[in-house]
């Protein structure tokens, strides 16, 4: 059977079928076209069909091919880490705007390392630290760090548990989906690490913890920037007490949704 015939009979979207076939065969986009009529081996056909089947059952494309683009860079992803989302690029941009040269930055709950590595890649002279509670996630992040030849320092920590010193900017995309939210049982989220998506509580538990002790780890005038859910901006703004925080504000993502809230330590 040729790739052309296999793609015609694919039980999934054609674009996705092409991506999975190219990944399985390790063919380039050009090969996908020029070799589409060439007969595939039985093993090749079986391997591709197995991927189609897994996709049909909902597994995210990013996990099936082990990779996802974020901020113009390619990141390895496994089911140990959240799949980087385009809206999180807003968090990267806001952090970059606030990073002076040689800035010390902390990314909490780094997962694949996408945020920290994007910052380090854009600002090689800065010093980026990143935590995760999951050793498995840190292993993925470290591989991404090596791949991009960035110099992020990763360490295991349950939020501030093993964090020492002060930073100019702290960023985080913490688990913010509330327990029992319907989205957790839909689409890609079903296959992603629950602890990276939900705090198993109100959706604000991790956000509160991060804000609560941020003053201990921020330089004066330093920024804390947090990603959150589509309906959480107002509550998150209210968690920043005006006695120690200034410039409390939220920023909209490309879909027009208030997606990041942050403030500056007085
Ligand atoms: N943005 C993700 C989603 O809603 C959630 C990520 C998170 O909880 N940090 O699909």
Q: Could you please describe the fold and organization of this structure?
A:
The chain has helices spanning 3-8, 14-25, 29-34, 42-56, 61-65, 89-98, 114-122, 135-147, 194-197, 205-217, 233-239, and strands at residues 67-70, 73-76, 104-108, 127-132, 153-156, 167-172, 218-227, 245-252, 258-265. It is an alpha/beta fold and 266 residues long. It has a 7-stranded mixed sheet with strand order 5-4-3-6-7-9-8, sandwiched between helices. Strands 1-2 form a two-stranded antiparallel sheet. β4, α8 (135-147) and β5 (153-156) form a beta-alpha-beta unit. α2 (14-25) crosses α4 and α6 crosses α7 (114-122). The longest helix has 15 residues, at 42-56. The mean pLDDT is 97. Residues 82, 85, 173-177, 189, 197 line the site of glutamine. Glutamine (GLN) is lined by residues 82, 85, 173-177, 189, 197.
């Amino acid at each position: 059977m040729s790739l052309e015939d296999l793609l015609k009979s694919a039980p999934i979207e054609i674009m996705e079928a092409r991506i999975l076939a190219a990944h399985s065969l390790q063919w380039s986009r050009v090969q996908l076209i020029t070799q589409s009529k060439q007969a595939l081996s039985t093993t090749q056909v079986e391997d591709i069909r197995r991927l189609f089947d897994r996709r049909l059952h909902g597994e995210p494309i990013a996990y099936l091919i082990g990779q996802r683009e974020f901020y113009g860079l390619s990141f390895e992803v496994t089911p140990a880490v959240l799949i980087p989302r385009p809206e999180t690029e807003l968090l990267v941009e806001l952090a970059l705007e606030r990073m002076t040269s040689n800035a010390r930055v902390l990314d909490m709950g780094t997962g694949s390392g996408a945020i920290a590595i994007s910052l380090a890649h854009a600002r090689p002279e800065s010093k980026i630290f990143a935590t995760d509670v999951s050793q498995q996630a840190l292993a993925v992040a470290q591989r991404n760090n090596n791949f991009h030849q960035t110099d992020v320092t990763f360490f295991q920590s349950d939020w501030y548990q093993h964090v020492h010193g002060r930073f100019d900017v702290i960023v985080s995309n913490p688990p913010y989906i509330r327990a029992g939210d319907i989205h957790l049982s839909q689409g890609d989220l079903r296959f992603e690490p629950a602890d990276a998506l939900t705090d198993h509580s109100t959706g604000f538990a991790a956000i509160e913890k991060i804000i609560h002790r941020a003053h201990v780890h921020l330089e004066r005038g330093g920024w804390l920037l947090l990603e959150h859910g589509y309906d959480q901006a107002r509550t998150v703004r209210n968690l920043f007490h005006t006695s120690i925080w200034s410039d409390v504000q939220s920023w909209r993502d490309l879909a027009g949704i208030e997606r990041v809230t942050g403030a500056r330590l007085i």
